[in-house]
Amino acid sequence: MQAIPVIVVFDVGKTNKKLFVFDEQYRIVLERTARFTEITDEDGDACENLESLTQSVYDSLHEVFDRKDFRIKAVNVSAYGASLVYVDEHGKPLAPLYNYLKQYPAALQQGLYNKYGGQDEFLRQTASPALGSLNSGLQLYRLKAEQPAVFNAMQYALHLPQYISSLISGKLCSDITSIGCHTALWDFDQQAYHAWVKEEGLLGKLAPMLPSNKELPGRYGKHTFMAGTGLHDSSAALIPYLLQFPEPFVLISTGTWCISLNPFNDVPLSKEELAQDCLCYLSYEGRPVKASRLFAGNEHEQQVKRIAAHFSQHTLHYRSIPYDARIMAALKPGVFERRDLHAFSSDVEAYHQLVLDIAVQQYHSTQLVLKDRPVKRIFVDGGFGKNEIYMHLLASMFPDMEVYAATIPQATALGAALALHAAWNSQPLPEGIIELKRYQTGKQITLY
Protein backbone atom coordinates (compact mmCIF):
# COMPACT_ATOMS: atom_id res chain seq x y z
CA MET A 1 0.00 0.00 0.00
CA GLN A 2 1.33 3.41 -0.98
CA ALA A 3 1.48 5.95 1.84
CA ILE A 4 -0.85 8.92 1.32
CA PRO A 5 0.17 12.53 2.10
CA VAL A 6 -1.61 13.78 5.23
CA ILE A 7 -1.69 16.53 7.82
CA VAL A 8 -2.10 15.83 11.53
CA VAL A 9 -4.08 18.26 13.70
CA PHE A 10 -4.29 18.31 17.48
CA ASP A 11 -7.65 19.84 18.42
CA VAL A 12 -7.57 20.50 22.16
CA GLY A 13 -10.85 21.40 23.82
CA LYS A 14 -11.58 21.95 27.48
CA THR A 15 -13.19 18.51 27.75
CA ASN A 16 -12.09 16.47 24.73
CA LYS A 17 -8.56 16.31 23.34
CA LYS A 18 -8.73 15.10 19.76
CA LEU A 19 -6.31 14.13 17.03
CA PHE A 20 -7.34 14.22 13.37
CA VAL A 21 -5.51 13.11 10.25
CA PHE A 22 -6.70 14.71 6.98
CA ASP A 23 -5.84 13.62 3.46
CA GLU A 24 -5.26 16.07 0.61
CA GLN A 25 -9.01 16.38 -0.02
CA TYR A 26 -9.47 17.24 3.69
CA ARG A 27 -11.27 14.03 4.45
CA ILE A 28 -10.73 12.66 7.95
CA VAL A 29 -8.82 9.39 7.67
CA LEU A 30 -8.04 8.94 11.38
CA GLU A 31 -9.57 10.30 14.57
CA ARG A 32 -8.63 9.79 18.20
CA THR A 33 -10.20 11.25 21.36
CA ALA A 34 -8.86 11.43 24.90
CA ARG A 35 -10.03 12.93 28.19
CA PHE A 36 -7.99 13.68 31.27
CA THR A 37 -9.11 14.04 34.86
CA GLU A 38 -8.44 17.54 36.10
CA ILE A 39 -5.93 18.15 38.87
CA THR A 40 -5.72 21.10 41.28
CA ASP A 41 -3.35 24.04 41.53
CA GLU A 42 -1.69 25.29 44.71
CA ASP A 43 -4.94 26.99 45.77
CA GLY A 44 -6.99 23.83 45.37
CA ASP A 45 -8.69 25.08 42.20
CA ALA A 46 -9.32 22.64 39.36
CA CYS A 47 -6.99 22.94 36.37
CA GLU A 48 -5.83 21.11 33.26
CA ASN A 49 -3.52 18.13 33.75
CA LEU A 50 -0.70 19.61 31.71
CA GLU A 51 1.62 16.65 32.24
CA SER A 52 -0.95 14.19 30.87
CA LEU A 53 -1.73 16.48 27.94
CA THR A 54 1.95 16.84 27.08
CA GLN A 55 2.54 13.08 27.25
CA SER A 56 -0.55 12.47 25.13
CA VAL A 57 0.84 14.70 22.37
CA TYR A 58 4.08 12.71 22.30
CA ASP A 59 2.23 9.38 22.39
CA SER A 60 -0.03 10.45 19.53
CA LEU A 61 2.93 11.57 17.42
CA HIS A 62 4.55 8.20 18.02
CA GLU A 63 1.37 6.41 16.89
CA VAL A 64 0.84 8.34 13.66
CA PHE A 65 4.49 8.43 12.60
CA ASP A 66 4.69 4.69 13.16
CA ARG A 67 1.99 4.03 10.54
CA LYS A 68 3.10 2.92 7.09
CA ASP A 69 -0.05 4.14 5.31
CA PHE A 70 0.56 7.83 6.10
CA ARG A 71 3.21 10.19 4.82
CA ILE A 72 2.95 13.02 7.30
CA LYS A 73 3.70 16.31 5.58
CA ALA A 74 2.56 18.73 8.32
CA VAL A 75 1.26 19.03 11.89
CA ASN A 76 -0.80 21.87 13.34
CA VAL A 77 -2.77 22.70 16.49
CA SER A 78 -6.05 24.33 17.42
CA ALA A 79 -6.87 24.78 21.10
CA TYR A 80 -9.00 26.72 23.50
CA GLY A 81 -7.75 30.15 24.45
CA ALA A 82 -7.37 32.26 27.59
CA SER A 83 -4.86 29.80 29.02
CA LEU A 84 -1.15 30.38 29.51
CA VAL A 85 1.73 27.98 30.00
CA TYR A 86 4.76 29.52 31.71
CA VAL A 87 7.91 27.87 30.34
CA ASP A 88 11.66 28.12 30.92
CA GLU A 89 14.24 28.52 28.15
CA HIS A 90 13.91 24.80 27.35
CA GLY A 91 10.14 25.03 26.97
CA LYS A 92 9.47 23.21 30.25
CA PRO A 93 6.43 24.37 32.28
CA LEU A 94 7.19 26.11 35.58
CA ALA A 95 3.65 26.33 36.96
CA PRO A 96 0.22 24.73 36.57
CA LEU A 97 -1.99 25.54 33.60
CA TYR A 98 -4.34 27.73 35.60
CA ASN A 99 -8.05 27.49 34.82
CA TYR A 100 -9.45 30.53 33.02
CA LEU A 101 -12.43 30.35 35.38
CA LYS A 102 -10.18 30.83 38.40
CA GLN A 103 -11.37 33.69 40.61
CA TYR A 104 -9.41 36.88 39.90
CA PRO A 105 -8.48 39.41 42.62
CA ALA A 106 -10.89 42.31 42.09
CA ALA A 107 -8.51 44.92 43.52
CA LEU A 108 -5.66 43.87 41.20
CA GLN A 109 -7.92 44.04 38.17
CA GLN A 110 -9.44 47.40 39.06
CA GLY A 111 -6.01 48.82 39.89
CA LEU A 112 -4.80 47.99 36.37
CA TYR A 113 -7.84 49.62 34.80
CA ASN A 114 -7.46 52.75 36.90
CA LYS A 115 -3.78 53.04 36.03
CA TYR A 116 -4.40 52.94 32.27
CA GLY A 117 -7.25 55.30 31.49
CA GLY A 118 -10.10 53.83 33.51
CA GLN A 119 -12.11 50.66 33.00
CA ASP A 120 -14.33 51.78 30.13
CA GLU A 121 -11.50 53.10 27.96
CA PHE A 122 -9.19 50.19 28.78
CA LEU A 123 -11.84 47.67 27.80
CA ARG A 124 -12.71 49.58 24.64
CA GLN A 125 -9.10 49.80 23.46
CA THR A 126 -8.41 46.12 24.13
CA ALA A 127 -11.87 44.97 22.88
CA SER A 128 -12.01 42.79 25.97
CA PRO A 129 -14.98 42.71 28.34
CA ALA A 130 -13.96 42.56 32.00
CA LEU A 131 -13.75 38.78 32.37
CA GLY A 132 -11.15 38.29 35.11
CA SER A 133 -8.95 35.28 34.39
CA LEU A 134 -10.60 34.89 30.96
CA ASN A 135 -8.52 37.95 30.03
CA SER A 136 -5.30 35.94 29.83
CA GLY A 137 -3.09 39.05 29.93
CA LEU A 138 -4.39 39.60 33.44
CA GLN A 139 -3.23 36.10 34.37
CA LEU A 140 0.33 37.11 33.46
CA TYR A 141 -0.07 40.37 35.36
CA ARG A 142 -1.22 38.39 38.41
CA LEU A 143 1.72 35.98 38.17
CA LYS A 144 4.14 38.90 38.27
CA ALA A 145 2.41 40.32 41.34
CA GLU A 146 1.89 37.10 43.30
CA GLN A 147 4.68 34.77 42.12
CA PRO A 148 7.66 36.97 41.19
CA ALA A 149 10.09 34.03 41.42
CA VAL A 150 8.21 32.12 38.73
CA PHE A 151 7.80 35.28 36.66
CA ASN A 152 11.53 35.99 36.75
CA ALA A 153 12.51 32.38 36.04
CA MET A 154 10.29 31.91 33.02
CA GLN A 155 11.41 32.57 29.47
CA TYR A 156 7.93 33.03 27.97
CA ALA A 157 4.22 32.82 28.67
CA LEU A 158 2.77 30.79 25.79
CA HIS A 159 -0.90 30.49 25.00
CA LEU A 160 -1.98 26.85 25.02
CA PRO A 161 -2.07 26.40 21.19
CA GLN A 162 1.49 27.69 20.95
CA TYR A 163 2.69 25.56 23.86
CA ILE A 164 1.42 22.41 22.12
CA SER A 165 2.95 23.63 18.87
CA SER A 166 6.28 24.05 20.66
CA LEU A 167 6.20 20.37 21.65
CA ILE A 168 6.06 19.54 17.95
CA SER A 169 8.40 22.14 16.42
CA GLY A 170 10.64 23.08 19.35
CA LYS A 171 9.96 26.74 18.49
CA LEU A 172 8.62 29.14 21.14
CA CYS A 173 6.33 31.72 19.53
CA SER A 174 3.15 33.76 19.87
CA ASP A 175 0.26 33.88 17.43
CA ILE A 176 -2.08 36.75 16.60
CA THR A 177 -5.28 34.69 16.98
CA SER A 178 -4.41 33.86 20.59
CA ILE A 179 -3.06 37.31 21.45
CA GLY A 180 -6.10 39.02 19.92
CA CYS A 181 -8.83 37.06 21.72
CA HIS A 182 -10.15 39.01 24.76
CA THR A 183 -6.71 38.86 26.35
CA ALA A 184 -6.51 42.60 27.23
CA LEU A 185 -3.04 42.50 25.63
CA TRP A 186 -3.87 43.96 22.21
CA ASP A 187 -4.70 47.59 21.39
CA PHE A 188 -7.26 47.42 18.60
CA ASP A 189 -6.88 51.16 17.93
CA GLN A 190 -3.13 50.87 17.32
CA GLN A 191 -3.07 47.24 16.08
CA ALA A 192 -0.19 46.51 18.44
CA TYR A 193 0.40 45.39 22.00
CA HIS A 194 -1.27 47.81 24.41
CA ALA A 195 1.03 50.27 26.16
CA TRP A 196 0.41 48.67 29.57
CA VAL A 197 2.05 45.42 28.40
CA LYS A 198 5.40 47.15 27.91
CA GLU A 199 5.12 49.48 30.89
CA GLU A 200 4.40 46.62 33.28
CA GLY A 201 7.36 44.60 32.01
CA LEU A 202 5.34 41.88 30.31
CA LEU A 203 6.43 42.40 26.72
CA GLY A 204 9.69 40.53 27.16
CA LYS A 205 7.78 37.56 28.52
CA LEU A 206 5.77 37.14 25.31
CA ALA A 207 7.45 35.08 22.62
CA PRO A 208 8.05 36.56 19.15
CA MET A 209 4.88 36.67 17.08
CA LEU A 210 4.79 34.63 13.88
CA PRO A 211 2.13 34.60 11.14
CA SER A 212 -0.68 32.10 11.70
CA ASN A 213 0.10 30.35 8.40
CA LYS A 214 3.83 30.23 9.05
CA GLU A 215 5.37 26.80 8.61
CA LEU A 216 8.22 25.74 10.89
CA PRO A 217 10.58 22.81 10.28
CA GLY A 218 9.68 19.89 12.51
CA ARG A 219 11.39 16.60 13.21
CA TYR A 220 10.21 13.46 14.98
CA GLY A 221 12.87 10.76 15.07
CA LYS A 222 13.96 10.28 11.47
CA HIS A 223 10.84 12.00 10.11
CA THR A 224 10.79 15.60 8.92
CA PHE A 225 7.66 17.68 8.29
CA MET A 226 6.27 21.22 8.51
CA ALA A 227 4.73 22.39 11.78
CA GLY A 228 2.22 25.19 12.31
CA THR A 229 2.31 27.82 15.04
CA GLY A 230 -1.08 26.78 16.41
CA LEU A 231 -4.38 28.68 16.36
CA HIS A 232 -7.03 29.82 18.81
CA ASP A 233 -10.04 27.56 18.19
CA SER A 234 -12.62 30.30 17.45
CA SER A 235 -10.40 31.83 14.79
CA ALA A 236 -9.55 28.41 13.35
CA ALA A 237 -13.26 27.61 12.90
CA LEU A 238 -13.66 30.71 10.72
CA ILE A 239 -10.95 29.74 8.22
CA PRO A 240 -13.01 27.34 6.05
CA TYR A 241 -15.65 30.06 5.61
CA LEU A 242 -13.12 32.80 4.84
CA LEU A 243 -11.48 30.64 2.19
CA GLN A 244 -14.72 29.54 0.53
CA PHE A 245 -16.83 32.73 0.75
CA PRO A 246 -15.09 36.01 -0.18
CA GLU A 247 -18.33 38.02 0.00
CA PRO A 248 -19.24 39.46 3.43
CA PHE A 249 -21.03 37.06 5.78
CA VAL A 250 -21.77 36.49 9.45
CA LEU A 251 -21.16 33.13 11.07
CA ILE A 252 -23.29 32.17 14.07
CA SER A 253 -21.29 29.45 15.77
CA THR A 254 -23.66 27.66 18.13
CA GLY A 255 -22.98 25.51 21.14
CA THR A 256 -23.10 26.28 24.86
CA TRP A 257 -22.34 29.82 23.73
CA CYS A 258 -23.79 31.12 20.47
CA ILE A 259 -21.21 33.49 19.02
CA SER A 260 -22.00 35.77 16.07
CA LEU A 261 -18.77 36.44 14.19
CA ASN A 262 -18.46 39.15 11.54
CA PRO A 263 -15.00 39.08 9.89
CA PHE A 264 -16.04 42.05 7.72
CA ASN A 265 -16.76 44.47 10.58
CA ASP A 266 -13.66 46.31 11.76
CA VAL A 267 -15.48 49.23 13.41
CA PRO A 268 -14.00 49.67 16.92
CA LEU A 269 -16.17 48.46 19.77
CA SER A 270 -18.20 51.07 21.61
CA LYS A 271 -18.80 51.21 25.36
CA GLU A 272 -22.41 50.19 24.70
CA GLU A 273 -21.39 47.14 22.66
CA LEU A 274 -18.97 46.00 25.35
CA ALA A 275 -21.77 46.30 27.91
CA GLN A 276 -23.83 43.92 25.73
CA ASP A 277 -21.08 41.26 25.75
CA CYS A 278 -19.48 42.13 22.42
CA LEU A 279 -15.77 41.58 21.89
CA CYS A 280 -13.25 41.30 19.08
CA TYR A 281 -11.16 38.43 17.83
CA LEU A 282 -8.34 38.62 15.33
CA SER A 283 -8.54 36.39 12.29
CA TYR A 284 -5.60 34.26 11.14
CA GLU A 285 -4.86 37.11 8.73
CA GLY A 286 -4.70 39.58 11.63
CA ARG A 287 -7.99 41.34 10.81
CA PRO A 288 -10.47 42.30 13.55
CA VAL A 289 -13.54 40.09 13.82
CA LYS A 290 -16.39 41.69 15.72
CA ALA A 291 -18.29 39.16 17.81
CA SER A 292 -21.29 39.04 20.12
CA ARG A 293 -22.07 36.27 22.58
CA LEU A 294 -25.26 34.70 23.84
CA PHE A 295 -25.48 31.92 26.44
CA ALA A 296 -28.26 30.34 24.37
CA GLY A 297 -27.07 26.74 24.22
CA ASN A 298 -26.93 26.57 27.99
CA GLU A 299 -30.39 28.17 28.25
CA HIS A 300 -31.78 25.67 25.73
CA GLU A 301 -30.34 22.72 27.65
CA GLN A 302 -31.74 23.86 31.01
CA GLN A 303 -35.20 24.71 29.71
CA VAL A 304 -35.53 21.51 27.69
CA LYS A 305 -34.98 19.62 30.94
CA ARG A 306 -37.77 21.68 32.53
CA ILE A 307 -40.17 21.01 29.64
CA ALA A 308 -39.33 17.30 29.57
CA ALA A 309 -39.89 16.92 33.31
CA HIS A 310 -43.19 18.81 33.21
CA PHE A 311 -44.61 16.78 30.30
CA SER A 312 -42.99 13.45 31.31
CA GLN A 313 -40.89 13.21 28.16
CA HIS A 314 -37.26 12.31 27.51
CA THR A 315 -34.98 15.24 26.61
CA LEU A 316 -33.90 13.44 23.41
CA HIS A 317 -37.46 13.84 22.13
CA TYR A 318 -36.74 17.51 21.36
CA ARG A 319 -33.83 16.90 19.00
CA SER A 320 -36.04 16.37 15.97
CA ILE A 321 -39.30 18.26 16.43
CA PRO A 322 -40.39 19.73 13.06
CA TYR A 323 -41.34 23.36 12.59
CA ASP A 324 -45.11 23.92 12.89
CA ALA A 325 -46.18 27.28 11.44
CA ARG A 326 -49.66 26.93 12.93
CA ILE A 327 -48.30 26.62 16.46
CA MET A 328 -45.81 29.42 15.92
CA ALA A 329 -48.49 31.84 14.65
CA ALA A 330 -50.13 31.88 18.07
CA LEU A 331 -46.96 32.61 20.06
CA LYS A 332 -45.30 35.86 21.08
CA PRO A 333 -41.66 36.32 22.16
CA GLY A 334 -40.68 36.73 25.79
CA VAL A 335 -38.40 35.26 28.46
CA PHE A 336 -38.95 31.53 28.66
CA GLU A 337 -37.54 30.89 32.12
CA ARG A 338 -40.30 33.10 33.53
CA ARG A 339 -43.07 31.22 31.74
CA ASP A 340 -45.55 28.94 33.47
CA LEU A 341 -45.53 25.61 31.65
CA HIS A 342 -49.15 24.99 32.61
CA ALA A 343 -50.05 27.65 30.02
CA PHE A 344 -49.06 25.30 27.18
CA SER A 345 -51.35 22.65 25.77
CA SER A 346 -48.46 20.35 24.84
CA ASP A 347 -44.75 19.94 25.15
CA VAL A 348 -44.41 20.62 21.42
CA GLU A 349 -46.06 24.00 21.85
CA ALA A 350 -43.83 24.76 24.85
CA TYR A 351 -40.75 23.79 22.85
CA HIS A 352 -41.75 26.05 19.95
CA GLN A 353 -42.08 28.87 22.48
CA LEU A 354 -38.62 28.16 23.93
CA VAL A 355 -36.97 28.23 20.51
CA LEU A 356 -38.85 31.41 19.57
CA ASP A 357 -37.66 33.15 22.73
CA ILE A 358 -34.07 32.06 22.07
CA ALA A 359 -34.21 33.01 18.38
CA VAL A 360 -35.40 36.53 19.21
CA GLN A 361 -32.47 36.93 21.62
CA GLN A 362 -30.20 35.64 18.86
CA TYR A 363 -31.63 38.20 16.43
CA HIS A 364 -30.75 41.07 18.76
CA SER A 365 -27.31 39.61 19.54
CA THR A 366 -26.46 39.15 15.85
CA GLN A 367 -27.68 42.65 15.01
CA LEU A 368 -24.87 44.01 17.19
CA VAL A 369 -22.25 42.77 14.70
CA LEU A 370 -24.34 43.50 11.58
CA LYS A 371 -24.76 47.21 12.28
CA ASP A 372 -24.00 49.29 9.15
CA ARG A 373 -22.22 46.36 7.46
CA PRO A 374 -23.23 45.12 3.96
CA VAL A 375 -23.78 41.47 4.83
CA LYS A 376 -26.11 39.30 2.73
CA ARG A 377 -25.43 35.83 4.11
CA ILE A 378 -25.74 34.28 7.55
CA PHE A 379 -24.26 30.84 8.21
CA VAL A 380 -25.27 28.86 11.30
CA ASP A 381 -23.12 25.95 12.39
CA GLY A 382 -23.22 23.74 15.46
CA GLY A 383 -26.24 22.38 17.29
CA PHE A 384 -28.79 25.07 16.44
CA GLY A 385 -27.98 24.70 12.74
CA LYS A 386 -29.62 21.27 12.97
CA ASN A 387 -32.73 22.67 14.68
CA GLU A 388 -35.48 23.12 12.06
CA ILE A 389 -37.55 25.44 14.25
CA TYR A 390 -34.63 27.73 15.03
CA MET A 391 -33.53 27.92 11.40
CA HIS A 392 -37.03 28.71 10.10
CA LEU A 393 -37.35 31.47 12.68
CA LEU A 394 -33.96 32.97 11.89
CA ALA A 395 -34.82 33.08 8.18
CA SER A 396 -38.05 34.88 9.03
CA MET A 397 -36.24 37.40 11.24
CA PHE A 398 -33.66 38.20 8.55
CA PRO A 399 -35.91 38.29 5.44
CA ASP A 400 -33.43 40.32 3.38
CA MET A 401 -30.59 37.84 3.90
CA GLU A 402 -29.73 34.35 2.79
CA VAL A 403 -29.80 32.16 5.89
CA TYR A 404 -28.03 28.79 5.75
CA ALA A 405 -27.44 25.89 8.07
CA ALA A 406 -23.79 25.01 7.52
CA THR A 407 -22.26 21.63 8.21
CA ILE A 408 -18.51 21.15 8.45
CA PRO A 409 -17.12 18.03 10.06
CA GLN A 410 -14.72 19.25 12.77
CA ALA A 411 -14.51 22.87 11.60
CA THR A 412 -11.86 23.89 14.14
CA ALA A 413 -9.44 21.13 13.19
CA LEU A 414 -10.19 21.62 9.49
CA GLY A 415 -9.38 25.34 9.83
CA ALA A 416 -6.01 24.54 11.38
CA ALA A 417 -5.27 22.15 8.51
CA LEU A 418 -6.32 24.69 5.86
CA ALA A 419 -4.11 27.38 7.41
CA LEU A 420 -1.09 25.33 6.33
CA HIS A 421 -2.48 24.29 2.93
CA ALA A 422 0.31 25.87 0.88
CA ALA A 423 2.98 24.24 3.03
CA TRP A 424 1.91 20.61 2.57
CA ASN A 425 -0.87 20.10 0.02
CA SER A 426 -0.10 19.86 -3.69
CA GLN A 427 -3.80 19.87 -4.62
CA PRO A 428 -6.00 22.97 -5.11
CA LEU A 429 -8.33 23.91 -2.27
CA PRO A 430 -11.33 21.62 -2.61
CA GLU A 431 -14.76 23.08 -3.20
CA GLY A 432 -17.78 21.95 -1.23
CA ILE A 433 -16.05 21.37 2.10
CA ILE A 434 -18.99 23.21 3.68
CA GLU A 435 -22.41 21.65 3.22
CA LEU A 436 -25.15 24.30 3.08
CA LYS A 437 -28.91 24.11 3.49
CA ARG A 438 -30.82 27.31 2.80
CA TYR A 439 -33.91 28.26 4.78
CA GLN A 440 -36.37 30.45 2.92
CA THR A 441 -38.36 33.23 4.52
CA GLY A 442 -41.81 32.23 5.67
CA LYS A 443 -44.14 34.55 7.52
CA GLN A 444 -42.05 37.37 8.98
CA ILE A 445 -41.86 37.32 12.76
CA THR A 446 -42.98 40.43 14.62
CA LEU A 447 -40.35 41.33 17.20
CA TYR A 448 -41.52 42.98 20.39
From TrEMBL:
The keyword Methyltransferase does not apply. SUPFAM superfamilies: Actin-like ATPase domain (SSF53067). CDD domains: ASKHA_NBD_FGGY_NaCK-like. Belongs to the FGGY kinase family. PANTHER family: SUGAR KINASE, XYLULOSE KINASE. The keyword Coiled coil does not apply. One of its GO terms (molecular function) is kinase activity. It comes from Chitinophaga alhagiae. Residues 247-421 form the Carbohydrate kinase FGGY C-terminal domain. Residues 6-194 form the Carbohydrate kinase FGGY N-terminal domain. Gene3D superfamilies: 3.30.420.40. Keywords: Kinase, Transferase. The lineage of its organism: Bacteria, Pseudomonadati, Bacteroidota, Chitinophagia, Chitinophagales. This is Carbohydrate kinase. Coiled coil: none annotated.
